Backbone:
């Protein structure tokens, strides 16, 4: 299974990606996590991305594509993966398609999580307040002002992917505003109904033609047929026997009548 999750920052893509990864035993590929790991490790790509992420801007395509290309090659992504936060632009989507084509693969579905942006800002403000109350550090890119910039960048660069994947017939959309569990159920239903993910239908078993009776069975049936035929013949013979005596009796009666008439005529003449 190879999936892409789309949605603005704060839509809950990370949470849903984790659930899908655990449920389907496939790798979760988050560009955000990979970039932050690169920043923490102080790699050249990480240092280059650090300032861009702090400003709330999207990391350039060459940087993200290089990270994703290496990540897809790893063994844990061989069975399948969920891309969370990539692609962000049509150019990245085309690059991803080329990467998969080189390996003879295709995306099974692209799930868009739709949310209300004003509610997203309220959520991030609440999350920051909770983090500060717990004494946890707040990331530079996890502020309402930065979120607004990221939402603007999403509308300008990432939103066109909705049309891109819609034309390819792999786009599925869910409402991301209900509780997390309800969103997970909705995504599960979408993936079950997706043509490439649904299990193939089994062909109905062909009806077996009735077996021809064996020779032994035919032999057993034949005598019964002869017996029934002989019974019918016996009935007809008995009927004929009953008719013959009746005919003889009728003939004798006629002969007697004829003799009486002849005797009467002879008496009259004498």
Residues:
């Amino acid at each position: 299974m190879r999936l892409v999750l789309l949605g603005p920052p704060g839509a809950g893509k990370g949470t849903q990606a984790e659930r899908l990864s655990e449920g389907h035993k496939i790798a979760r590929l988050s560009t955000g996590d990979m970039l932050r790991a690169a920043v923490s490790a102080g790699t050249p790509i990480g240092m280059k991305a650090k300032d861009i992420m702090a400003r709330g801007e999207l990391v350039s395509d060459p940087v993200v594509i290089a990270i994703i290309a290496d990540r897809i090659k790893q063994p844990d992504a061989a069975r399948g993966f969920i891309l969370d936060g990539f692609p962000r632009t049509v150019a990245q989507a085309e690059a991803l398609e080329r990467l998969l084509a080189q390996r003879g693969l295709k995306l099974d579905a692209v799930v868009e999580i739709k949310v209300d942006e004003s509610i997203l800002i309220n959520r991030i403000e609440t999350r920051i307040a909770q983090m500060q109350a717990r004494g946890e550090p707040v990331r530079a890119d996890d502020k309402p002002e930065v979120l607004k910039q990221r939402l603007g960048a999403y509308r300008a660069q990432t939103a066109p992917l909705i049309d891109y994947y819609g034309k390819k017939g792999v786009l599925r959309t869910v409402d991301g505003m209900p509780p997390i569990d309800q969103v997970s159920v909705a995504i599960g239903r979408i993936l079950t109904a997706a043509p490439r993910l649904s299990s193939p239908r089994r062909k109905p078993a062909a009806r077996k033609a009735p077996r021809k009776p064996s020779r032994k069975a035919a032999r057993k049936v034949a005598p019964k047929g002869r017996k029934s035929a002989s019974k019918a013949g016996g009935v007809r013979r008995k009927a004929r026997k009953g008719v013959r005596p009746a005919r003889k009796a009728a003939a004798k009666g006629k002969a007697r009548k004829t003799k009486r008439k002849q005797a009467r005529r002879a008496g009259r003449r004498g």
Remarks:
- Residues 198-204 have pLDDT under 50 and may be disordered.
- The chain has two domains: 2-193, 213-270.
- The two ends are 131 Å apart (CA to CA).
- The first strand starts at residue 2 and ends at 6.
